[in-house]
């Protein structure tokens, strides 16, 4: 069998997305650290009234892939803003975020 019949769409990658991953994970904070060989991005969801949060997802990238991600995000933000208008940024609050007093049960 020729290579064309084995792989009719040469250069494309077949990526499978299972149901659990397809649901996604909400994050409103990303913490980024790096070493000489890798970038570590921790995605956190901070909810009002909760004194403690956990990392929901951790992505580890090579520096080259981190740079590609930076470019891809920049390109996508530009396209989004062309279609929907400028994304308004706001002054970043200090961490830890203070949502007010915690509730009691």
Radius of gyration, in Å, reads 20 Å
How many strand segments?
Answer: 3
Head-to-tail CA distance between termini: 68 Å
How much beta, percentage-wise?
A: 15-25%
Helix content: 25-40%
Tally of DSSP helical segments: 3
Largest sheet: 3 strands, antiparallel
Described by its quaternary structure, the protein is single chain
Average pLDDT, all residues: 86
Poorly predicted sequence stretches spanning 5 or more consecutive residues = none
Main sheet strand line-up: 1-2-3
Broad shape:
extended
**H/E series:** HHEEEH
SS class: alpha+beta
Tell me about this structure:
By secondary structure, the protein is an alpha+beta fold. It has a domain at 18-84. Helix content is 30%, strand content 18%. The protein has 3 helices and 3 strands, in the order ααβββα. The protein has helices at 3-6, 19-23, 63-84, and strands spanning 29-34, 39-44, 55-61. It has a 3-stranded antiparallel β-sheet. Strand 1 (29-34) and strand 2 (39-44) form a beta hairpin. The radius of gyration is 20 Å and the shape is extended. The termini are far apart. 0% of the residues are buried. The model has no long low-confidence stretch (mean pLDDT 86). Pfam families: DUF3467 (PF11950). Residues 85-105 are annotated as: Disordered. InterPro entries: DUF3467.
